[in-house]
Prior knowledge:
Organism: Shewanella cutis
Family: Belongs to the 4-toluene sulfonate uptake permease (TSUP) (TC 2.A.102) family.
Helix content: over 70%
Pfam families: TauE
Radius of gyration: 17 Å
Shape: globular
Strand content: under 5%
Number of strands: 0
Low-confidence stretches: none
Mean pLDDT: 84
Number of helices: 10
Transmembrane segments: 12-40, 46-68, 80-97, 103-121, 159-178, 190-212
Subcellular location: Cell membrane
Amino acid sequence: MEFELTLQVAVLLFGVAMVAGFIDSIAGGGGLLTIPALMWAGLPPAVALGTNKLQACGGSFFASLYFVRKGLVDLKTVKLALFCAFIGAALGTVLVQLVDTKILELVLPFLILAIGCYFLFSKKVSEEDRHQVLTPTAFAFTAALGVGLYDGFFGPGTGSFFALAFVTLAGFGLAKATAHAKVLNFSTNIASLIFFALGGKVIWLLGLVMLAGQAIGATLGSRLVVTKGTKIIKPLVVTMSLAMSVKLLASQYQLF
């Protein structure tokens, strides 16, 4: 589709992407800002989702890069999980075109709210690593594949689902779980972007402008994850879980 990118729109969406990148690198949920902003700019829903995946790739890449450099993520230990997350997202992107998503739309707000409550009240959420429930291989073929499938199929709250899986199943501390969640989220973003691009659903210039904003915001946010840890991650995860739940419920019942 044709889209005229004015300077005013570019500056506004750059700023929105920067804020979203900051939030995404810590707690996820940045799409609550970027997708409505893209639709406000005049993009159809499918093109807004495709362009959003492009800019989200920037945020997840730069956050992942920072976490790897700081030693929170060892790519060798999660390469199978990265592959499974990628395959899951690719399958989900295909599946969403064949299956009715209505049931998931009804259940999802309550699942995301439950995640927020878990992070708020569970004593297992801390900086310390705990007992590992699944081996890395089992984790890759269950949690990584499953959440990847969900991201390609629907998407909201993917970072929170990954973080929850790393805390409960891999036994990671919160900062380490957040870092690994972002690396896997980058893999799922790439998979979905490929399929959106093949379908011609990406406005490349606009997506690249927002990608630059995402890169700045994600770098700043990932630094706070390293320096502040649970003090900033926990309240922001709870807040974004509540915000996503309210947004999804409001969309269902057309409250606003």
